Amino acid sequence: MTTDKKFNLIDEQWIPIRERGLFSLRDIFSDPSLRRIGGNPIQKTAIFKLLCAIAQAAWTPKTEEEWRQSTVEDFCRKCLAYLEKWHEKFWLYGDEPFLQVPAVANVKVAPFAALNPEKASGNTTVLTQIQLQTEPTDAEKALLLVTLMGFATGGKKVDNSLILTPGYKGKSKSGKAGSSLGFMGYLHSYVQTDSVASTVWLNLFSYESLSRLQCYPEGVGTAPWETMPAGEDCGVARKLKDSLMGRLVPLGRFCLLADGGMHYTEGIAHDTYQAGRFDPTQSVGRPKKDFKTLWADPDKKPWRSLTSILSFLGSQDATRFVCSQVELGMSRARDRFESVELWSGGVRVTSNAGEQYLTGSDDFVDSQFEFSPQDVGEQFFVTFSTSAEQLDHLAKRLYMCVLGYYKDMGTDGKPLAERSVAKFWEIAGLHAQELIDSCVPGEDPEPVRYFFRATMRNTYNESCPHFTPRQLQAWAKNQPNASQKGKER
Fold first, then answer.
1. Inter-residue contact 38 to 16 (CB < 8 Å)
2. Contact, 216 vs 243, CB < 8 A?
3. Are strands 261-266 and 253-258 parallel, antiparallel or unpaired?
4. CB 131 within 8 A of CB 118
5. Mean pLDDT by 10 residues, the chain (489 residues)
6. Is this model's pTM higher than 0.90 or not?
């Protein structure tokens, strides 16, 4: 690897912005026309978290009142001043490369394609041109590096033969999954506003808001590029495990860029949500005795988890799910914005025998929906929860009716019933924003609910032919009949 200083993440364009191209860190805090982070869902989350880490290091307000007195323009000036102060720490190459550990230079080099779940490596079948292995640009290397800090897949791609902290016993032959990925792929959520910089400003924790959380006993902590850890369990690493900074930029892999790939070994092993430690963008609850979290699921789009993501609006029971990032953003947005978007996304992965990878049924998922923060309160939550429950009932009723029809026709109807339900949810997803809008105070949700009942009946009719006398008999016998409340009459 070259030791010459080149490609500084503050100056060079590497951050994908949707429909605009690539931009630098300086651009993000200088250009209010940059609206949405681009890339796949885990790249979006990793970039958002890095920007939040820079923001927290630049300025963490003491109280919520201090944040309310601030402006996004003043906030951006603080972030730009911080980037100028720490400019030397953001070189992708050199003696102190950004988020890299030169001490791992002797471990095996993993090829870039093996570290990117979107690329084909080894004996993986190539389905599309985007999966082909190509030499990444410096911009792509920077994005991959930032993403790997929290979203590295577990397995034997890592060379864990090197231990930097004497006596450390936390490494095995198989590397652990990134703390932002987990066993199957966590679902992450946060509130977006009219620009990337404004979004980061809205989601900035104050010392007061952070003190209410029990995940981070070290508080905000120190940005890792200011003081990089010397090993997996050194004093710096332990503080990162207990701080917000350690969840925003987890350093789950110790890397060093090389020709054709990265020197690559397991870094800091963070506790999981089951131990009560998790990212602020995760939704975590304790419905019974154990902590639960929301997973990314290609078969269940993120909008179907909105009742859990927004459960802080309803019951204050300790068993509810909580996404601290969304709760913070929504509560602040009421005084500042007429409209915001709630974004949720992630990737589903398969874990098998210590290896993590994407199978044919795994995929990226993300969604975003517009809200008027003034309308999002307990009344909205109750109405939306009722509508969501009715949708679940309609889907279950459709499944049973199609299954019953094909049973009476003397055939296995399970695959067709599953396909019918998938089609119902696909149509429902296209109208999810209408459902959300119908649940705000002053609106009538019944027309949208009626549409979903009609969709359920139409899907049944399309799935169950009714032309012959025998078909008609089975169709009539099993025909779904949902009442206004979504319950069978």
1. yes
2. yes
3. antiparallel
4. yes
5. 78 97 98 97 98 98 97 98 98 96 95 80 49 80 97 92 94 93 96 97 97 92 97 97 97 95 96 92 82 93 92 72 94 94 96 86 93 93 95 96 96 95 96 96 95 96 95 95 47
6. yes
**Both tokens assigned to 97:** 């490369």
What tokens were used for 137? 């640009």
CA distance 404 to 419: 15
Which amino acid does the sequence have at 478? Answer: N
Report which of 184, 109, 150 is spatially closest to residue 358, judged by C-alpha positions: 184
Type of residue found at 322: V
Q: How far apart are CA 398 and CA 472, in angstroms?
A: 17
The secondary structure of the chain in percent helix, strand, coil, rounded to multiples of 5, reads 40, 15, 45
Written as six digits, the tokens of 339 are 């409209």
Please, what sign has the CA dihedral across residues 98, 103, 105, 108?
negative
Q: Give the type of residue at 105.
A: A
> What is the widest separation between alpha-carbon atoms in the chain?
80
Calpha distance 421→406 (Å, rounded): 15
Residue 371 to residue 392: CA distance in whole angstroms: 22
Answer for the pair 39, 62: CB distance below 8 angstroms, yes or no: no
- Per DSSP, the residues of 80-125 read HHHHHHTGGGGBSSSSS-TT--GGGTTSPEEEHHHH-TTS--TTPP
